[in-house]
Design a protein that fits this description.
It is a single chain. The chain is built from 8 helices and no strands. The protein is mainly α. It has one domain.
Length: 123
């Protein structure tokens, strides 16, 4: 009598989305990333821009995680490629990158109140 081998099951990795794609889309429509990246040019050694970093910080806060030092760990549970609409690794939002994204704790608050057209006028 020959024993049959059980069929191998496929392992599927499931990641969360929640409301983050909707918020990410709204941030893009408001041109938050473009506005920041126009004011603070990206560094050649970084895989993400300051604008993307700030978007990650906002999205992390909206997950209920308010410790901004764990952005990479928090976003690792989510499908960041869907949220950011491009291939991106959640681990790129490490602590050092997050602090570089917010050079002055009060600076980014001003950017929420001005449009890209106003930024061009200010420059």
């Amino acid at each position: 009598m020959q024993l049959s081998t059980p069929p191998t099951s496929e392992i599927v990795e499931v990641k969360r989305l929640d409301h983050l794609p909707l918020v990410g889309t709204m941030l893009r429509e408001l041109a938050v990333q473009d506005t920041l990246d126009a004011l603070i040019p990206p560094h050649t050694r970084h895989a993400i821009t300051v604008g993307e970093c700030l978007e990650a910080l906002v999205l992390t806060i909206l997950t209920g995680e308010h410790a901004l030092s764990r952005v990479a760990e928090t976003l690792a549970d989510y499908d960041v490629e869907v949220i950011f609409h491009r291939p991106v690794d959640a681990l790129q939002f490490h602590d050092n990158r997050g602090h570089a994204g917010v050079p002055d704790p009060h600076y980014h608050i001003v950017l929420w109140y001005i449009s890209p057209a106003q930024v061009e006028t200010l420059q």
